[in-house]
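fold-stage: in
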Amino acid sequence: MVRLLDALDRARSDPEKESHYALQLDRLFDSVREPSRLNENTRLQLDEMEDDNPLPELVDDLSGWYDDNQFQSALDALDQLEASIADAEQKDWLSVAAQYQYRRIQLRAGLQGHNATDEIEEVLDFLRDHHEAISSTFITPIIEIVIENLDDLSNSIKDRWFVLLEDISDTHRANNQFNQEREGRRLLRQFKQQDGRDTADVERTLIESYQTEANLIASKSQLQKADILQSGIAECGEYMDDEQRRDWKQEALRARRSGIESELTQIPIENLSEEDGDSLEDALLQEMEQNTETLVEWFKQVKQETGSSAYALYCLVFSSKLIPDVNKMRLTTEEFVISQLVQRRIYSPEAHSLAIDPTEVETIPNAYAQHAGSTMTSLGNALYQLIKEGHLTPADVFQLFWIGDSLSPDTGAFLTDGVLDLYDGNHIQGLFVLMPHLEAAIVDTLRSIGRPAYSIVDRGTRQQLLGGLFRNGADIFGQHYAVYLRWRYTSRQGMNLRNRLTHGQLRYNNANYLNAVLLLFDILKCMITINNSAYLTYFSVPSQALTPATNYGRGLDLSLYTDLNKQLIGYGRSDDGHSILVLRQDPHDDRIELFVDRGSINHYDINTTDLTRDELIDRIDDLRSDHPSIPENVDYTWLDTDDLVLHTIKKIIDEALDSPADSTSQEAVLDTATTRGIDESTGRFAISMLDDRGEIITADVRGDEHILRSDEKLQVFETARRIDGIGTYRGWNIADYFKSYTAFEDADSETFEQVDGIGPRLAVELSSLQ
């Protein structure tokens, strides 16, 4: 993040940016409490500070206390903190002073036999005079530590704190700073609960806060209104009456439906008819609501179990389930090369013509917008609700920025401003500050791990543009996430958000909270993905990330991979049962496609088809060195022989036919065959060969081609037709009813009456045939 000295220089040149220095002090003091995290670079920066700066000596004193338990060092540190507070107030660095105040209380309260009553009273006076000029980011930790030491305070001091918290909350309400207002009221409620006081008045004002904000924001964004009401229900539901809770749920549902129609142009629902339009829209709405609720509850659970919102956010960033599976979309739609032969005109959502027959070949499926838009909108809504409810704070975000320690001072400073803007409710400003620094954050992080962010040109190198980083970055970001980043930020066939914003084409109402919070998430995810070793060292492997369900315990289904234009040549399942490997050959191209399905599908190309099976397995082993997701131990089944195809079709038929007079439709057999990797054309040819060999019998049953194990069913049908009044329909009903010709011969009139369409008269005549 921003280096300590850079932040100090920025505060000196621009006092309004002293909050950057306060954030760096927060990071520094946390590191001092855990010496292993106080790195050499920070120590060098402290050594470079001027002699009149008390910080280096303060850090030494704190280290003497936390490292060696030297009591005199703690007392000296308290004196240094008092002097630092006075110096910060003199410079009008109020956020810095608040940070020193917090650390002073923390240190005093941690000394055995001491309490922080005097310090708490002093900070009370400080906040009473200056709270309007200090961000809640720096006030909240002070109040939290005061609550921890509540038993040491007199009732008169507690009463003054109650008044202060009400004043802070009321000030934020007057300025329409609802997040900050509710943070203050939550702390006031916690304060009163711990002191055994009634909290009904605070709970009432919390409900009013959500309702006021929802009414105010409704004219700007119905989606945002829906999220605010959902957050209000989640936080205040336990002390709302049933009627109010029901009314808010209905109001949120109406707002969400209206917002999807007017604001989410990036989620088109393709090919709607008048009959199914409402049902599909409602289904999409319900799915998004459920996904949002699931993400919010999952985040809260991880936070509760681990005690860390930053860790929960880290796990969320590593959650592969959130990233759309582009290969699954391609396999589902099978967009063929012929689509590239038609002249195409690409428009932006604002109806600007971007290209006609673009020279670059995009590889984003047409159905991607709906899937990605729905998934990521749910994520954005969840993040927004977590921010609204106070479960995800700026400190959590800054902690993830700092762990990698990879950003340049300027990039870090801009990102700091963008995060604070977003949390202050300035979504438009936050979006415009953060967007240019997505690329900067990626480039800085690549450089920090010694990886070039440039491409080689004729006479040297040049830095890749953002689109190039995404297009060539499958090995950096992973195949699915690289496609998502292109779709969202740089592709003309996607949202193209970065370019639309840069060229002034973005609609005003699209510069909203949703795009701002998702941009912040993507910046964090890019940094953590590139420099994952730093985060794995700090947090270890995320134990609770959301991942797609694997194939463990499921039957083998290869229908997704069967295609009339391509041949499935083999498949296998990994030893652990979680992964399926599928090999498919394109007869029009000299390549073999390898798909690895472990919940999400990864796609690799082997650029030749003239390989023996052993050579093909060797090529897969070579791929594994660069792609460890490819499992090692796989038991392969090969489908590139007619005998195996015939054996598979025969086995499917045998499984479907239980008795000599049983039958099954060809379509049912072919549908099952696709799950075993046999396409329809190959399956029909195999059925024809089995019929020619006399191993099965095919017949027209009620207008459909059926497969029979033997001629017994036909014999039953033909014998029954000899009775007047029994036509084709009743004849097949009789043939379906009996499991063998012998059973048909032995049946009496009562048995025949059980057949659909056969009355007493026909039953008697049928029984007399024998």
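fold-stage: in (second)
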Amino acid sequence: MLLGTTILATSGTALAQQVNTGGDSDIVVTASKREENLQDVPLAITAIGNERLGELQVKEFQDVVKFLPSVTIQTLAPGFSQVYFRGVASGENANHSASLPTVGTYLDEMPITTIQGALDIHAYDLARVEALAGPQGTLYGASSMAGTIKLVTNQPDTSGTYGSLGLELNSITSGGIGGVAEGFINAALGERAALRLVGWYRHDAGYIDNIAGTRIYPIKYINDDGDLVDDPGDEITQTNAGLVEKDYNDVDTYGARLALGIDLDDDWTIRPTLMGQVQKANGSFAQERSTAVTRKLQTVQYNPERSDDKWIQAALTIEGKIGSWDLTATGGHLRRKTTTESDYSDYAYFYDAVAGYASYFYDDDGNQVSPNQYIQGIDRYKRSFAEVRVASPADARIRFIGGVFWQRQSHNIEQNYIIDNIADAITVPGTDSDIWLTKQLRVDRDYAAFGEISFDITDQLTLTGGGRVYKFDNSLVGFFGYSDGFSGSTGVAGCFGPPQISGSPCTNLDKSTSDTDFIHKLNLTYKINEDALVYATWSRGFRPGGINRRGTLPPYGPDTLDNYEFGWKTNFGPVRFNGAVYQEDWNDIQLSFLGANGLTEIRSAGIARIRGIELDLGYRAGGFSLNLGGSYNDATIRRDFCAIANPQFDCTIDPPGQTNDLLAPSGSRLPVTPKFKGNAVARYEWPMGDLDAHVQFAVNHVGKRRSDIRTFENGIVGNFKAYTTADVSVGVKGEGWSAEAFATNLFNSNGVINSAVQCGESICGDPDGISNTGGVFYDNVIRPRLVGIKVSKDF
């Protein structure tokens, strides 16, 4: 479905969009940073219109991805998701000091991707969602290595004053009651100005139960023979009685957008926008897989879990003409703050069961305390950007678009790993009861000059070339680790200077990395006739390098993706057929995994090849439309992946004093993405008296996926099984109002989209049975069956 001309997220075809546009097939997108007819853009792009988003029951990012066969999502909780195009995924754990995402996300003109993933914006009053598959590096730059997703909002309209109000009530199977209230008003402020105010509130009911559980921490000591053994009768028992709750993972989301549009004259327009959202999520969004849990949609958590995600964004875009050329100057600033609480008792339990760490946790009187551990985090993000670009007349034989780009994003990281009541001597200085503190400032800076030039060789044949010269300059400074009373080598004991980051006891981390390079794009398009074209593209995307915070490891370099693609866009009367075949070579992959002491390590040590095909078929006649879309991706690594990278990439070479291991052999499949993903949507509309009625049915299928690129760890966690979902809706529309009943995940599939453990898989997965209780895995699953009704009224 993510094909050269897809327009809707069912299978994504432009034919389906005609439902929303009264048969007008001239869909305009801005994927090439100028307004163009979708069918004339030689890119693999999907555009999902505003009305269609509502028809597909799209409310959040995960709902959009469901209808994009070339896109995969991993999510831990609302606001913490990673998106992948065409299998370009290595299993990144999205650690705060690790690699940036491979997919860039834009809100109108502004990039909004943070290290934790894209903002989870409530999908309302969007003009469209554009999904651009393949490298978009020349026009969109860093972190658009594998693709770009643009959320385009409806702009203020000077034609009049009008608005709309919508209400929804829904219920989750084995869960609670939820609902949505949303609305907008567009107010014309004369002939040359308009204001648009949008607001929303959504309550997502919970469906995960936190059931009762008891955990016993065995106390160990070293006997006369030097062996670590249990101390019978000296145990610490923990229960979660105060946290037992049904459907405890509910979410409240509310926000607003205020946009002003001013036409200064016939050539110049200014558009300031202010947008913000608050999302409060309780509980865990994963069902537990362990001996303590025997039913789906249940978990046993021993500490409170929640997240508060608040962000505000201000942007300004100025558009005008200098002679016959278009000038666009745009900039913005984003601030985001996430406050989280996470259970970390599995880490405490399994490390105690293996190594007896509980004996090291004592109070000021020397008495042993419970090793129960939990995390309280505060992450603050700031992002500023500016771009100025010019574009020559779109009807000229030679066309140019180019400009300059700058952005700076900072992430102030605070993660408190807390064990209550520990002694002052083993508490990280400046904290109440931290056994470990991470207090760091990460800054990522990007500078670029870019451009594309197109030349119509003939009326039918066009050649386009593009490039981007870029520089990144990234740094990480601060503190991570234990107190010097607990560890004599890490944390405070490893500090080399006074604190540079407020709230840290001292500095043991101060690293930076930078690089300058060039990427390219070359495209040849042949327009067979008004209803068909073919194109071939050779393009490259990149992702900046970054910092390994472990002192013994160097910074990791950028990785690149070379894309070789052939696509077509055709229209045969009521049938539209689009497709693309491609090969993508991923070089110097930033492979990340948990190393010693649970610290993330990143190696630029991989090569992968993705070969795939995307197909999209649409048919419309009268009131009936059918859209079919699917993708096949064969994504494998082409070189052995070693635990310790070396120039020879030979896992049998052991560095001095270290042992190298083969983590994954050449030919292993990349994780997360299935070989096949597809969907089908059928819709029928008919008049019913003075009303228009409709019925719609959708099916989505996701194939089997690896959980991890590493062979051993994948064997512990296991593969993700294939799953299929079905959605159905029926409704009517009158003059200025509509009503609809719907059900998503009709047959209540329990599809798994991500799995995690609280510490290394070889420990918390307990493959050796050391704890005698088995491992504990947390499987994030799709939302169970949701049944609802919704109504809207225009005014």
